[in-house]
Design brief:
single chain; 162 residues; alpha+beta; 8-stranded antiparallel β-sheet; 5 helices; 8 strands; 41% strand; elongated
Length: 162
């Protein structure tokens, strides 16, 4: 069963210390992809800009600085309000986005109720899949496993290569 947890919210794209612009965004979490969160930024173009990264990164970033490379997340206060900052880097450019901590935290709590931390692998059925893959097959021809998959270059019965 696939559960989807979504939240529309308005982020701020920080252009400079004095200037920012609003950016509508949609946070999406799908239980069929339990390790990831998806953010679609609606920037006035025909198609939204989509980012996907680890849910754990966003959960941790609400409390302390984390991440490196393309995605970094950290909490701070702006004008007395708690916010989460997300620094995103790509070959197309960099962006610093500000999100209200209360709204992000409420959405994350819903995702954590849908798939508790540490149970993501169970949700994917990885252990069951591996057990099925590695289980002995009834009626398996063991002699197939014992045959040499690479025939010898040595000739038999007087046959040879010319």
């Amino acid at each position: 069963m696939n559960t989807v947890v979504e939240r529309e919210l308005e982020l701020k794209l920080i252009l400079s210390p004095e200037r920012s612009i609003p950016v509508p965004a949609r946070l999406t979490y799908r239980t069929i992809d339990p390790f990831a969160v998806h953010i679609a930024f609606h920037i006035g173009s025909e198609n939204p800009v989509n980012w996907t990264f680890a849910r754990e990164l966003l959960v941790e970033g609400v409390f302390r600085p984390c991440g490196h490379g393309d995605v970094r997340v950290w909490p701070t206060k702006v004008d007395g309000h708690s916010v989460v900052l997300m620094a995103l880097s790509s070959p197309d450019g960099d962006a610093l986005l500000e999100a209200p901590t209360a709204q992000v935290s409420a959405w994350l709590e819903r995702t954590l109720r849908a798939v508790p931390p540490g149970s993501e692998a169970e949700q994917l059925g990885i252990d069951d899949g591996l057990a099925e893959l590695l289980a002995p097959t009834v009626g398996c021809h063991d002699d197939l496993w014992l045959r040499d998959p690479w025939p010898s270059d040595e000739s038999q019965d007087g046959e040879g290569y010319v």
